[in-house]
Amino acid sequence: MILPAARAALLALALTGCVSSVVKPYVGKPIEAVFIAHGRPANVFDLANGRRAFQYYLGGGTFTTPAVTTGSATTVGNFTSYGAVTTGGNVISSPGCLVTFIARPDGMTFIVEEYRIPERLVC
User: Fold this and answer.
1) How far apart are CA 40 and CA 54, in angstroms?
2) pTM > 0.90: yes or no
3) Residue 22 within any structural domain of the chain
4) Interval 60-92: pLDDT, tens
């Protein structure tokens, strides 16, 4: 049986892999391709070398761990006592990874040159 914390870690690793496969195709394309697919960025800022950084929260979601209920009944004489314990059923939420697209100016637009995904375990 996988503990809830281990499930969250596995989910985070899976989401990071998914995020990488989502952002990689934008390299070499105009930043408008990212806008069309993902909407407005969370942050935009200029870099010293004329490039611009566009940040998005990608890959977030909610995961609910399964709930397990165990019950017992104890009888003493004419009296029966019932009890139940529920474990699990926790909700784990993440806004996603803050992914940064770094783009260079090209005429009236910016071309995505690279992207950065946080190295932390849980995004």
Assistant:
1) 9
2) no
3) yes
4) 778 788 888 888 888 888 888 888 888 878 888
| Rounded Cα distance, 107 and 30, in Å | 11
Q: Summarize pLDDT for 40-55 with one digit per residue, the tens.
A: 999 999 998 999 999 9
* The total number of structural domains that make up the chain: 1
Both tokens of 67, joined, read 């709930």
Contact partners, residue 20, CB within 8 Å, separation at least 6 = 117
DSSP secondary structure letter of residue 37: H
Q: For residue 9, is it within any domain?
A: yes
What is the tens place of the pLDDT at every residue in 15-44? 445 667 888 999 999 999 999 999 999 999
Give the whole-angstrom CA distance, residue 78 versus residue 2. Answer: 41
Is 123 within the bounds of a domain? no
User: CA-CA distance, 100 to 53, in Å (whole number)?
Assistant: 6
